[in-house]
Amino acid sequence: MANKLNGFLNNVGQGLTNPKGNLGDFRHAARMFIDDTFRLAPKQKFLFFVNFEINPAALEQFPQLKNRHLPEINMLCKTADLPQFSASVDVKNQYNRKKVVQTTLDYTPVNITMHDDNQGITTFLLEAYYKYYYRDGRGDAREDAYGARNTYSGVRKYRYGLDNGTVVPFFKNIKLYQLSRQQFTEYTLVNPMIERWGHDSMDYSDSAGVSENTMVINYETVLYDRGRIDEDLPATFATSHYDTVPSPLSVEGGGVANLFGAGGVLDGGSSVLGDVASGDIGLGTLLSTANTVKNAKQLNTENITAEGIGLATSTLSTIGQGASLGGIAGSIIPSAGAGNEGTTVALAPNSDNSGSQAPSVGQGQKLASARGRNTP
């Protein structure tokens, strides 16, 4: 009777002695862009966040923004330019040697587009800015202040334009964030002023278009910073309208009927024991225990054996490459094939920033941390 492992061992032997076969594959690109949790992969343009920080003195005049809607405005930004710089450079003659010197640094204005939502929150932001700086926009102006005659009739009765008593700037700063691998890069626009702003056009013939509000922002300088994404970091991020339901591949969300890997029985047992050891026992611990017991009951010898052989095969195939399994330490990526579209990828956070969670790996896939929070 033939040994069931003969084919497996033959394939392993051929893989070790002739790892690429007769034709090289995509491994070079995989090692470049996938290894080390997608460290060198390009960032996605749709992973960004904008935070408008309004001075408290200005917010006092507009309680609607202060009390509720400011975090929502930050979420309604549709597009945003990142800062760009241009230096004026002169070429000097230094004893017959051409010498290039810088003279000035200019900042390119930033364009921000926002959804014109049904409640009119982003429109109210522009309205508040207009009323804060310009007397013309004040609703308390009397109707006869804009008569057809000269505004100076004997004595001046009304105030116009920038004569609004405004001293404190409307915006304290505007912060733009690029998000990737659960890290953010922060660009702070210092002392921003809106150079141009406006509302969209209306068109009866356009049944597919959506309305937008736009602004062009000038600023004095840019400050850079970096950090790890968390709730309210960046400020107002993930504080409202955010999905906090645990991932179905995490232990709290149900886990998987595997012995190894994230969301498996061993992972669930480790999580429960860790909570017990630390004394941090709550509803999450009870859910993890119930799901781990449920998944353990579904295990059988055949599945465990197949899982072990699969792990061994994957480990042997990466010998000599100097990379972690699949190039993504502490994570699960569904295998290629039918039925993977729309799957949720569960990622386990690492201890340092360099090994942070990987971003979305495919169209239609959702990113869910092992804690159940869906963060970029």
3D architecture notes:
- A hairpin with a 2-residue loop joins β8 (171-180) and β9.
- Residues 318-376 have low confidence and may be disordered.
- This protein has 2 domains: 48-83 and 114-141 and 154-228, no CATH class; 244-369, no CATH class.
- The protein contains 9 helices and 14 strands.
- By secondary structure, the protein is of the alpha+beta class.
- Helices cover 26% and strands 24% of the residues.
- It has helices spanning 6-17, 27-33, 35-38, 56-59, 63-75, 121-133, 265-278, 283-297, 301-317, and strands at 48-54, 77-80, 84-94, 97-108, 110-115, 152-153, 155-156, 171-180, 183-190, 193-199, 212-218, 221-228, 344-347, 366-369.
- The protein has a 4-stranded antiparallel sheet with strand order 1-8-9-12. Strands 2-5-11-10 form a 4-stranded antiparallel sheet. The chain has a two-stranded antiparallel sheet with strand order 3-4.
Secondary-structure blueprint of this entry?
Layout: H1 6-17, H2 27-33, H3 35-38, E1 48-54, H4 56-59, H5 63-75, E2 77-80, E3 84-94, E4 97-108, E5 110-115, H6 121-133, E6 152-153, E7 155-156, E8 171-180, E9 183-190, E10 193-199, E11 212-218, E12 221-228, H7 265-278, H8 283-297, H9 301-317, E13 344-347, E14 366-369
Parallel strand pairs: 13-14
Antiparallel strand pairs: 1-8, 2-5, 3-4, 5-11, 6-7, 8-9, 9-12, 10-11
